[in-house]
Specification:
FAD/NAD-binding_dom, FAD/NAD-bd_sf, alpha/beta, 4-stranded parallel β-sheet, FAD/NAD(P)-binding domain-containing protein, 5-stranded parallel β-sheet, FAD/NAD(P)-binding domain
């Protein structure tokens, strides 16, 4: 095992574990006022709400896959997996110890994407070729990712037969039934066949004639299928660390109103890994990052803890993209579908805005 790396900093060493939308943003915000080290298995972060567009338009992913080195110009990046935490250090899979004064856990969900950006871009290209080669496509699931993927394909490839199969009674069950009904009507108008309250027995697929059997014994023929399943939280490794008693029954880290892990003065958690009672969305993870960054700065500057910012769970505000122009949006007092919410999100999926927030050109990628 290597000796602990002491970068100095006089109590200003910040280690961020996880380089998703939350971890990357807090690392960027603190890099010029703290001694920042970002630990992430991948060399890039991906704007998650833009990923489905990359399947129908691979070139779109060029702007939504951002190498950590592009925005982390005054910090250190360690391309590795964190495997242990002590009260003073983080241990990586290679046996490297990275010392911290403040620690941020932002590991989110356990994705299995390639380490290198170009390899991830190649995956998008392969998915696109799979879509283009198919005459009929089945999407399994009724959550936002499933609905958005079905919509993206239906809009960009209207000649293809798209079937959406969901085992629940309605689409988008995490928001109100009015939004679900509007979305169902929109998909049907785009010739997407929607089958509700049915599941697919994926282990009984016939590779010869591409036949899928539903739980209602219906037969669906499709050249290919996409399954947008939920990913587990990337928190199992914490069970062997000093934070082993800081997770709830779902593996989420228990945080206080300042986004510090309960019982800890200098360890924060942000993003999907937290037990905050709200819908897990990327823009809320970014809000976590901004609050935690402010609080770490307050602590580093020796100010009173009473000055720390508090985070309040946000009311439901959801925009689900439906292709390149339309979207369905649920706000506190109204539900909209069509061009108006689509104008807010669907054309660029907030990619330019996110790149600008990271200090990058919103339009141009130079690799």
């Amino acid at each position: 095992m290597e000796k602990a790396v002491d970068f100095g900093g006089g109590g200003r060493r910040v280690v961020v574990i996880g380089g998703g939308v939350a971890g990357s943003l807090i690392a960027k915000k603190l890099q010029f006022i703290a001694d920042v080290t970002l630990i992430d298995l991948k060399e890039y972060f991906e704007i998650p709400w833009a990923s489905l567009r990359g399947m129908v338009e691979p070139s779109f992913a060029e702007r939504s896959l951002i190498n950590h080195k592009d925005y982390l110009t005054n910090g250190r990046f360690v391309a590795s997996r964190a495997i242990n935490i002590t009260n003073s250090d983080v241990l990586t899979a290679e046996g490297r110890l990275v010392a911290y004064d403040y620690l941020v856990i932002a590991t989110g969900h356990d994705d299995r994407f390639p380490k290198i950006r170009n390899e991830r871009l190649a995956e998008y290209q392969a998915e696109n070729e799979k879509i283009k080669a198919a005459h009929s496509i089945m999407v399994v699931g009724g959550g936002p990712s499933d609905v958005e993927l079905a919509a993206e394909i239906a809009v960009d490839f209207p000649e293809k037969k798209v079937t959406l199969v969901h085992d629940g009674p309605r689409l988008l069950e995490f928001i109100g039934p009015k939004a679900s009904d509007k979305t169902l009507h929109w998909l049907k108008n785009k010739n997407v066949e929607v089958k509700l309250q049915q599941s697919i027995e994926l282990d009984r697929i016939s590779n010869e004639n591409k036949t899928y059997i539903t739980s209602s014994r219906e037969t669906i023929k499709a050249d290919c299928h996409f399954l947008c399943i939920g990913k587990p939280l990337a928190s199992a490794w914490l069970k062997e660390t000093i934070l082993k008693d800081s997770t709830d029954g779902f593996g989420r880290l228990k945080v206080d109103d300042n986004l510090r892990i309960k019982g800890r003065k200098n360890i924060f958690a942000i993003g999907d890994i937290t037990d905050i009672k709200e819908i897990k969305q990327g823009y809320l993870a970014q809000k976590h990052a901004l609050i935690a960054a402010k609080n770490i700065k307050i602590l580093m500057d020796g100010e009173k803890e009473s000055k720390m910012a508090t985070y309040k769970p946000h009311s439901i505000k959801v925009i689900v993209s439906l292709g390149r122009q339309d979207a369905v949006a649920q706000f506190q007092f109204t539900t909209l579908i069509g061009l108006v919410p689509g104008f807010i999100k669907s054309k660029d999926l907030f990619v330019g805005k996110t790149r600008k927030q990271m200090g990058l050109d919103p339009h141009i990628v130079d690799y």
